Give the backbone structure.
Amino acid sequence: MDTTRSRGRTSKSPRGAAMAVLLAVGMLVTGVPDARGESVRGESVREEGAARSEAPVVSAGAAGGVTETVVRVKAPLPASFGARPAACDWLSYLRYRAADGPQSSADADRILVAQPGILEGAGAFDSVARNTVARAAERGQHVEFWALDRRSNCLEDRTGIASGDQHAAVDYYYRGKAVDGRTFDGYVGNGRMGWMAKLGIEQTVRDEYDLLAAELPDQRVRKQKVLCGGHSLGGVITGYLAAADFDGNPATTADAGYNQCAGYFALDTTVSTSLGDLSGSIPDDTNLPDVGLGYGVVQAGLDSGVLPRSLSAPVLLNPETMTLLAIAGLGAVGDPGGEADLPSYLPANVNIEATNRFLFSKDTATFLSGKPAVKDFRLTNEAVLGALMDDHSVPLAFLQSSVGFFDGGPVVDKNFPVANGGDTRPGLFGGEYKAIPDQPGGPLYTWRNYDRVGDPDDPGYRSADGTPFTGAGKEVTDVQELARSLARQPLDFTEQYFPTKLVTDLELTTSPQVKRLVVHPNGLTANPTLTVLAGDGLLAGRIPADLHPVVADGYQHLDVLTAAAVQNNGRPEPVSTNLAEFARAPR
């Protein structure tokens, strides 16, 4: 079954589209309420009986001039959703604004409101949000950037990460040890997610509308000042918001989605009502149901629990492995140049072992034997994080950012799961040559940050065929900024519990239940749109020219969110620069 795409183009098959959108991943820590509605550490950010709370976020090492707060607004789900944790009746976002700007959002010049991609939380927007606010301030504009968190992130328990200590975090999540008097209840299983069976595109756009209406009650202010957008899957969600009607009467348009926004922005995505513009694939062992069954059968399976209510895979993409990224971030922030013991300190289980083998094997023989393992190498804490996230190391395009390169010892080609070179490159693995340390038990491998690649002391590592692994023009993200976004944000960088229904709804765009959500199709083009693409990312060369996209050269899919304010060419970061220009309020 084909789906009908906006803009008159034809999409892939539903299953192919689902595999494509899964590449829209994008990927912590003061006073964040968890699924129990409690504060993880420090003072509570939720006043008893209040419908809204706002608390400051202090991220040591972040550039000054930008104020960050975590905001929570009470927005109970309908009774039909059934039992859920109290925290899931709240909506949350990170609010960034100029430190010398107005305290009231309604008084800002513009407000950019961003939807995350799949498996991505609000914390992933930290760098682009700060950079956009700062760039606008340089031009005399006071803009705000709101990074939205999906409602299902209420299930995450960030207690271990919030400790700020890597060993304490591992002990909390894997050894049953307490942090601040609390022990981990385990990752949430399918049987405890019944309410998420109904958490699809309709509720997702309703949540954004309700949040905007609560925070900016005057619709005229929303229409004048709010710019709606997102990263990856967030572009599709924005498309549905633009086409939606929220009062049940299409003849009245003040409530129409497009009238909540002055413009749209798309970060390595497009604003549409189809998955067709999101291209790529992921391993076939994800638990995404076959939507060829039809909307009714899929919904019945979600309601009964026969189908999984949260998207995951046996290894690599599941709550446990997503948590490992934040744990690695803790080490990189706390002791960047210190020798890492995380690979040895983690307990051995099938999930962690298989994930480590997949990510840190130089060839098939190493993957099958498990020797040498990652714990056999000497790596700094920054090098561990780089190995997990860099586009010349991790063999999964949706996890890749351009944060630098290995240093301190010889490296070789990483020819697993695919070999470097050749005429074609599978979309899943990205287009960059992969490298891996070559000497287990040898030198201490360090990490050369993005802005030191190409320096006079750079060894200039090359592949066996003579191809340089990287160059200054390919590196754009500061590894320390990435580490802080992973480990020191009150809302997560990654998303542990992504609602399966959100993807199946978007696959079934021709079903009556989903088609009825597109009430104002002209809303997609009712406002100006800024489209920004990663030059080396998933959509490079695949977006129609009539969208007039801005291309960020050398960027990967995540770099449009994580890139540093100043690039290797000495120029300001282009994504935030273009967002600040797009947000320039009329005079």
In short: The mean pLDDT is 88. DSSP finds 18 helices and 15 strands in the chain. The radius of gyration is 22 Å. The longest strand covers residues 66-74.
